[in-house]
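Researcher: Next entry: CBS domain-containing protein (Catellatospora citrea).
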Amino acid sequence: MRASDLVVPYPTVALSTPAMDTVHLLAEADLPGLIVVDDAGAPFAVLPGTQVLRLAVPSYFQDDPNLTHLVDEAAADVFIRELGARTVRELLPPQPHELPVVPPEATALEIAALMARTRSPLVAVVDGGTLLGAVTLHGLLDRAVPA
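Model: Predicted structure:
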């Protein structure tokens, strides 16, 4: 099984896309993350949904989960507004990581190892500089796990 057998069309966002638009896309399409593309349309990064949450949830709540119990439900339900006017560029980690990208001929094991190594729920499939789509963790497991 190759990436070309597993690839599906996948939505992308630009570095300048408002973070809240990204949240809406993740939620409405029930996606584990998004592919961020540069101005030329080439993959720049993979933005897992958990990274979006990391910037939406104030660090003091992440550092001390007991503080979350002190916030009433009405205030807790609107935490995502912490993203404000941020862009996708601001959601990306500051240090560069290995880009989860494979060619169409990559094997299922190569894809799985890359997902595990980069902690990414999706891998972009690129052929000659053209983004073909993505292989998702769900799609990989659906095909790799015996019935």
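Model: Note for the record: The chain has eight helices and six strands.
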